[in-house]
Amino acid sequence: MTEASLRERKKRRARAEIADAAARLFGERGYENVSVADVAAAAEVSPQTVYNHFGTKRDLLFDRDEEVTSTLVRLVTARPRGVSPVAAVRPAFLAEVDILRGRSPGESAGDLPALCATSSEVRRYVLESRDRQADALTAAIVDTGDEDELFTAKACAAALLSVLQSFVDHVGRRIVDGARPGDVADEVEPMVAAALDGLERRCSPRRRRTRAD
Questions:
Q1: pLDDT confidence tier of residue 82, bands split at 50, 70 and 90
Q2: How many whole angstroms separate alpha carbon 157 and alpha carbon 161?
Q3: How many CB atoms lie within 10 A of CB 64?
Q4: Could you tell me if 111 and 193 lie in one domain?
Q5: CA 81, 82, 85, 89 torsion: positive or negative?
Q6: 101 shares a domain with 68
Q7: Which SS3 state, helix, strand or coil, does residue 73 take?
Q8: What pLDDT sits at residue 202?
């Protein structure tokens, strides 16, 4: 293992530990009642170290945001000919259900769905993030579809992100009400699948423009 890769692993581990500490505190006290200094103390690092990994307190909420966005874009861009964007991203959506299934009640209390359900500020941030994700997904759909289908791509991307947000909203309410994460996952999985099935009928595959066209 090279020195550079070792440094990168340490950096990722430190970032994850800070994000975990933030999520735990947000779940215990509420997002508005936790400061960056509180997170630093819980993670046993300095406030500056927190800022080195997360530019703002808000960024602590979206530790996985870039990962989710890049995954959706990659799946859409790499999908085989004749496969719709909906079918392409289905595995990523169902993977979110599996992540929920593996969470403990304490962990889920600090996850984004529960925070979104208990904080209007967090919910506003999340909806802003959905807009950015929809823009990225629209670009990926347009890049692999017909040039004149911009509005169709926008509608498809918005619908897909609406399913993701509906998942977040439902999970958040159920977790706040005291439901166990595994039970909520079992409950919401067929709902997500049904929503994607409905979108699949509306976002049928169109001729894909390859980069060689």
A1: confident
A2: 6
A3: 14
A4: yes
A5: negative
A6: yes
A7: helix
A8: 77
Alpha carbon distance 200, 83 (integer Å): 10
List pLDDT tens digits, range 130-160.
999 999 999 999 988 754 578 889 999 999 9
Range of the domain at 11: 3-60
CB 42 within 8 A of CB 24: yes
Distances (CA, A) of 145 to 20, 84, 205: 39, 10, 9
Q: Same structural domain for residues 50 and 84?
A: no
Structural domains of the chain, count:
2
Q: What string of DSSP letters covers 144-166?
A: TS-TT-HHHHHHHHHHHHHHHHH
CATH number of 23's domain: 1.10.10.60
**Is 21 in the same domain as 122?**
no
In this structure, the chain runs to a length of 213
Say what the pTM is: 0.86
Residue 1 is classified by DSSP as: -
Residue 5 banded pLDDT, cuts 50, 70, 90: confident
Sequence-distant (≥ 6) Cβ neighbours of residue 22 within 8 angstroms? 34, 39, 42, 43, 60, 61, 110
Q: Is the pLDDT at 207 greater than 50, yes or no?
A: no
* 198-213: average pLDDT: 62
Lookup: tokens for 10 = 């340490």
